[in-house]
Amino acid sequence: MDQRKLMNIRDFGIHPDTGEDCTEELNKVINEAMTYESATIELEKGIYHIYPENAVKKGYYITNTATKEENPDVTKTIGLFFHGAKNIVLEGNGALLLYHGEMTTMVFDLCENITIKNLHIDFARPTMSEAMVKEISAEGNELTLAIHPESTYEITDGKLIWYGHSWRKQHTQVQVYTKETDQTWRIGNFFEKAESIEELGENTIKLHFNEKFDATPGLIYQFRNDVRTQVGLFITNSSNIRFESVGFHYMHGLGLTAQYSDTITISKCEFVPRKESNRTNAGFADFSHFVGCTGEIKILDTVYCGSHDDCINVHGFHFNVVDRPSDHQAVVRFMHPQSYGYQAFFPGDTVDFNDKKTLLHVGSRTVTEVKLLNEYDTLLTFDGSSDISDSLENASRYPKLTVENCDFSRCPTRAILVTTRKKVVIKNNIFRGIIMPSVFVNNDANYWYESGRIDDLEITDNRFINCANPVIHIHPDNPSIGNRPIHTNIRICENEFTGSAVIKAKCAGKLTIDGNRAEGEFRLELDNCEEVRIGKTCEW
User: Fold this and answer.
1) Which of 60, 67, 330, 438 has a CA-to-CA distance to 91 between 20 and 30 Å?
2) What DSSP string runs through 63-126?
3) What per-residue confidence (pLDDT) applies to 213?
4) Handedness of CA 61, 63, 69, 73 (dihedral sign)
5) Residue 1 has what pLDDT?
């Protein structure tokens, strides 16, 4: 017999569309739901406002966010806080959670079996700003911009200052969007070149330049500050977290971020601007980012449109060995400054030592003890000698990945960036006008330090429509070529390419390319690949 507790939000005195801050009250309902063996929290359709003043404040070190110098205070301002929660369903019934300020919308910490469904998430004033080119002078040295009504701003001491609830910033990153092709791409910060900025009123400004400015009326510029103070949504040390029919209409900082968690499902979701907002952007950085996860990540029937970085990124980490206190121990260090502070190894994990130049595996050990020495260094004790190499990764913390029946567009970087040794299936998706490789397989121990070899990758039955070349790129960043492949068992089959298509692969083994269809030129560029099987590719 189902003993699930049904909890209607109205019974707790919380009503939609009041305009009042209901942050504290919603968290009280979540806390009560945790007292039951299982519970369903039901919202009513309407708008619920979430403000930072009554939000949960808690420090989290989160991967790929900001350096210590950029953001020394790792405190997150959390809208809805699930800590130690189990067997809870949040049924939105089409409700909108409208956030204010710089916030992390939700956190799931030490949680199990949580489902969020039929809900919309947006910000009243996103930390991204937008403006459309209204006019360009005949000489090309005066640019008139119509500012989006939600993008509040002021001109102070000749500089354009953007502001929202409890924040004021200059924006340093600029991206341009064109409706003609529904594409975005990054450009330089042209505000730095403006000699002066003139306020014309009614959300309209004019920029004056000493040189010709290249622009076309109707283009839309998207602006942001570069520091990722928060994340869109954070999952840590949790399992079986599911999002079903959720609209992620804006997320500040890195997007939906999962760190050392097991089994996450994103089904029938939308990472897109809310139609009523008339905005073109829905994400400050990556839409979804997964690090050190296990189990399976399933992303099904989901739309990704309007990011400022990758739509999906799945990876582990390479660590440098910086000391060996004993024969069975090693001090390992986070190397990229945007990732530090959290526990990345656990007793019982298998560690793979790698040659840093070739990225090839040279030996393994089992972790028996873990001690965090500081924000960057961890002391690991192994079941054998650690004197194997100066670079290692946690081989136990990689997930399976399935991306199926999804739609990717308006992305300035990669739609899918994946490096995981577990089975990967990328099937029956549509990629539209992606500016960089639509599918990118990397592995890098020298810059981003995002680790993971590919052992089983299937890219089948997808449609790539006018995407940049190479459309699919297998490219480990290994300074030296080793004596065997890095990525293996890759099948690129039965895909359809509109426009020309280039597939590039480096240091790949057991690579099969067969049954693809291309409207234009179809070209392969292979570098140090082994056991390659190239079948027939049909031209339209």
Assistant:
1) 60
2) TTS--TTT----EEEEEEEEES-EEEEEEEEEEEEEE-SS-EEEEEES-EEEEEEEEEEEESS-
3) 86
4) negative
5) 42
What pTM was computed for the model?
A: 0.97
Helix (H, G, I), strand (E, B) or coil at 449: coil
In the predicted structure, residue 540 carries a pLDDT above the cut 80? no
* 136 within 8 A of 144, measured Cβ to Cβ: yes
Tens digits of residue pLDDT in 401-429:
999 999 999 999 999 999 999 999 999 99
Question: How large is the greatest C-alpha to C-alpha distance in the chain, in angstroms?
Answer: 76
Q: Residues of 375-414 as b/e, b for ≥16 C-beta within 10 angstroms?
A: ebbbbbbbeeebebbbbbbbbbbbbbbbbbebbbbbbbbb
The tokens describing 278, both together, are 């008339």
Residue reference for tokens 């283009």: 219
Strand order in the sheet with 159-164: 153-156, 159-164, 167-169
Per-residue pLDDT reduced to its tens digit, 1-28:
458 899 999 999 999 999 999 999 999 9
- Give the per-residue pLDDT at 384: 96
- The rounded distance, in Å, linking the Cα atoms of 221 and 215 is 10
- Rounded Cα distance between 399 and 420, Å, is 7
SS3 sequence, 284-334? CCCCEEEECCEEEEEEECCEEECCCCCCEEEEEEEEEEEECCCCCEEEEEC
And the tokens for 59?
């420090």
Region of 54 (left: φ > 0; alpha: ψ -120 to 50; beta: rest) is alpha
Provide the 8-state DSSP code for 405.
S
